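Here is the promised in-class demo. Please do not try to memorize the tokens; focus on the logic of going from shape to residues.
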């Protein structure tokens, strides 16, 4: 019975409900990376100077290495679980997780897992995640692109550091209102642009737009979490942006996050529509291009709920709505590319 309780506590500490959000950027970047390769192939086929058609088609088809997104997903999940363990540990030893906290009880808070055990779990998870990151870099870049490989390795180490230092240590950046910045960077541009480059070996400007979308929606989830916990965070000395600016202004900021994410998204899909119209000479591009915009319908309903909610405790169910809507957006990106490619 004790072993079953401990296993349940570890699963709870991993916070499985956060995992779909964490891989959204990888799904979006992978989908449009695959689409970029398909566009390249079609341009080659249409070129009047094209030679050795069959040989090059085979090479192009093999250029999308399915192991790259698979390893990227595994690595990202590792980063997220590590972050969740570190968050549980950091808030637990600092006393932030106490009876005033509104969300579900954490593992250290419950006493089922000791700080020493959680620290050991963090070390094991960090090592396994780093191994996965190294495999991802090797499969994608090999040993020929040494400087770029070292850059991505540095990003992986930085991601591990960021996952741990969010709440762990005397200078935890989550306690100084910097969590939103790091979440935006690692969930957005690093995730989307990173996997896009590993797949295509190039970066195009328009991919910054969906990376901004994923980054801002991820920050919106964190902002909701911090609005929910505003009172307990104040008592514990956790100076999040929400604590610094107050609940009313934090709500306005939240609306701005989702609104800018929508503007960024619709701009990207208009760029895609123009690309279909001019570069691929398609007279009437399919409206399937805009399919992912459906994910914003529940997000706008959510904004109305946030605006009307008086008590921070009532915001807890909204976290899942934003996280799942972001994941839904990523899935719709994959579906639209699958239909159109």
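The designed amino acids, position by position:
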């Amino acid at each position: 019975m004790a072993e079953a309780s401990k296993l349940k506590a570890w699963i709870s500490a991993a916070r499985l409900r956060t995992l779909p959000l964490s891989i959204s950027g990888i799904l979006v970047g992978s989908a449009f990376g695959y689409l970029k390769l398909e566009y390249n192939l079609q341009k080659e086929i249409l070129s009047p100077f094209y030679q050795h058609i069959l040989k090059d088609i085979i090479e192009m088809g093999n250029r999308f290495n399915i192991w790259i997104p698979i390893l990227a997903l595994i690595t990202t999940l590792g980063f997220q679980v590590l972050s969740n363990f570190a968050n549980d540990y950091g808030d637990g030893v600092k006393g932030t997780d106490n009876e005033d906290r509104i969300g579900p009880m954490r593992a250290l808070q419950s006493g089922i897992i000791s700080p020493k055990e959680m620290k050991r779990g963090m070390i094991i998870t960090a090592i396994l995640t780093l191994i996965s990151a190294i495999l991802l870099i090797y499969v994608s870049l090999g040993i020929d692109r040494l400087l770029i490989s070292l850059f991505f390795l540095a990003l992986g180490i930085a991601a591990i550091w960021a996952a741990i230092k969010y709440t762990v240590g005397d200078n935890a950046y989550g306690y100084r209102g910097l969590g939103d910045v790091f979440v935006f960077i690692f969930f957005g541009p690093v995730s989307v642009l990173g996997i896009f480059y590993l797949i295509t070996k190039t970066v195009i400007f328009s991919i910054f737009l969906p990376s901004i979308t994923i980054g801002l929606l991820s920050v919106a989830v964190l902002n909701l979490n911090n609005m929910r916990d505003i009172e307990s965070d104040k008592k514990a000395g956790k100076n999040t942006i929400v604590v610094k600016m107050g609940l009313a202004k934090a709500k306005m900021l939240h609306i701005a996050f989702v609104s800018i994410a929508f503007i960024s998204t619709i701009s990207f899909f208009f760029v895609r529509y123009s690309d279909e119209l001019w570069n691929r000479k398609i007279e009437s591009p399919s409206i399937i291009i805009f399919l992912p915009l459906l994910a914003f319908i529940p997000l706008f309903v959510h904004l109305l709920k946030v605006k009307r909610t008086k008590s921070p405790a009532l915001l807890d169910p909204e976290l899942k709505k934003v996280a799942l809507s972001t994941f839904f957006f990523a899935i719709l990106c994959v579906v639209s590319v699958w239909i159109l490619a």
